[in-house]
Amino acid sequence: MSRYEDTIAAISTAASPAGIAVIRVSGPDAVSAVDQIFVSPVRKKLSGQKGNTIHYGWIRKPPEHISADAADEDRTDDKGSIVDEVLIMLMRAPHTFTREDVVEIDCHGGVFAAQKVLDTVLQTGVRPAEPGEFTKRAFLNGRIDLSQAEAVMDIISSRNQYALQSSVRQLSGALSGRIHEIRKKLLHETAFIEAALDDPEHIDIGEHLSELNSIVSEQKLLISDLIRSADSGKMIREGIKTVIVGRPNAGKSSLLNALTGEETAIVTDIAGTTRDVLEDQVTFGGIALRLLDTAGIRQSDDKIEQIGISRARSHAEDADLILYVVDSSECLDENDQDIFKMIRGKKAIVLLNKSDLKMIVTKEEISSYTDCTILEISAKNREGFTELEKCIREMFFSGQISQNDEIYITNARHTRALQDAYDSLTLVQESIQNGMPEDFFSIDLMAACDALGRIIGADVSEDLINEIFSGFCLGK
Ligand SMILES: Nc1nc2c(ncn2[C@@H]2O[C@H](COP(=O)(O)OP(=O)(O)OP(=O)(O)O)[C@@H](O)[C@H]2O)c(=O)[nH]1
Ligand SMILES: [Mg+2]
């Protein structure tokens, strides 16, 4: 049953010119409201139709709005009241996304046309939906849990293939499933302790402590795996911050342009062309990169160039990935030594650029200065990019994201909740070690369940009562 008494409507497609727009109406009056403004060629009524059916017809202004509007527009015939030709998708509760009656109106696209149809729907007394309200109803009516509701938002905003895949997995319940498993174990332990406290004559908690400790350790491990995945998750969502560095004229801007497929940066044979940091987003083999082209690094007396170089250094400092471009047709010099120092201990790939020319610098020479992967490329001829793509994928996603079933935490709220759960479990272990009374364990175990529950929107007290009654028959 829906918790809501009102009916909401909104344009669910993008507000841009398109062939079709979809107006979604959800709530107890969805069908009767649309019935007031829908005319079918055979005069059928939507209220008499089954769920999951499609109906052709027109949206017409509601009767009480026709005369005034028609007078305005000097139209008095029936056609003057027609707003658009439409297809109606009729879906009945509870087999819908919101678990309410849902009517979707496929009308003609274009911002103005769709808005006209929505206005007409609203004239029946339906209220405009707030942002995300359909998904909120789906959650509150029990159709999806909170992490799945958030995944819906993530799917909508995902900007690359991996972000999309990760959100779709979350929507399908992958993250919820993992959280449920951990939470179930902790709830079971909490219920056991509660039962022991209630019935000390029959249940001895002392015998159970080492098992409790190892169960808590296992769950902490699972939680910390999830927390660790948040770094990759952030990169999936926002793109890997990839800073291109190198000496002037190495071909950094040429690389940026080759990767973006656009003439984003100015390329010349004058050393010191790029002064400021240039940023662009690309999807490279399905991976989102936030690419930053920077000023060539060298000793310089030019004030502007110096500022550019120091910006390059500071971006390299907090980069997720550094692409160090070397002009392989020229000998290395002291500036390169400086850059080798800069990339030490960082995730970096050395790109021997200009492989189309006679190469003077070799992989062997470079590898005497760094352990980083070294690849030969030609930014000018776009050669070596497949290798680069493979290398980045292996560095960040251990190959293919789609072929393993890893879960990536992409939401800061989830990371915080996981950290809280982890900290509470650490307290449980400390209490065990310090021989504290049982109620200390159960308070912190409950806190951990609570924190995990925040991710999926579960209520710990309700779940604990269920577990106690189903598992331990308290009060029998
Ligand atoms: N033959 C050849 N020339 C290249 C290649 N990549 C870049 N160049 C040339 O090298 C010169 C410098 O290229 P840029 O991309 O401007 O180099 P940069 O590293 O951005 O230089 P600064 O902005 O001055 O630091 C230009 O003349 C490019 O056409 C390549 O793969 N092969
Ligand atoms: Mg440049």
Mean pLDDT: 86
| Bound ligands, named by name, code or SMILES | guanosine-5'-triphosphate, magnesium ion
Order of helices and strands: EEHEEHEEHEHHHHHEHEEHEHEHEHHHH
Oligomerization status of the protein chains: single chain
Question: Poorly predicted ranges (pLDDT <50, ≥5 residues)?
Answer: 71-77, 400-404, 472-476
What does this molecule look like?
The chain has 16 helices and 13 strands. By secondary structure, it is α/β, with parallel strands linked by helices. It has three domains: 8-142, Probable tRNA modification gtpase trme, domain 1 (Gyrase A, domain 2, 2-Layer Sandwich), CATH 3.30.1360; 155-233 and 411-457, Four Helix Bundle (Hemerythrin (Met), subunit A); 242-397, Rossmann fold. The strands form two sheets. It has a seven-stranded mixed beta sheet with strand order 3-4-5-6-2-1-7. Strands 9-10-8-11-12-13 form a six-stranded mixed beta sheet, with helices on both faces. A hairpin with an 8-residue loop joins strand 1 (8-11) and strand 2 (20-26). The two termini are 33 Å apart. Bound molecules: guanosine-5'-triphosphate (GTP) and magnesium ion. Magnesium ion is lined by residues 252-253, 265, 273-274, 293.
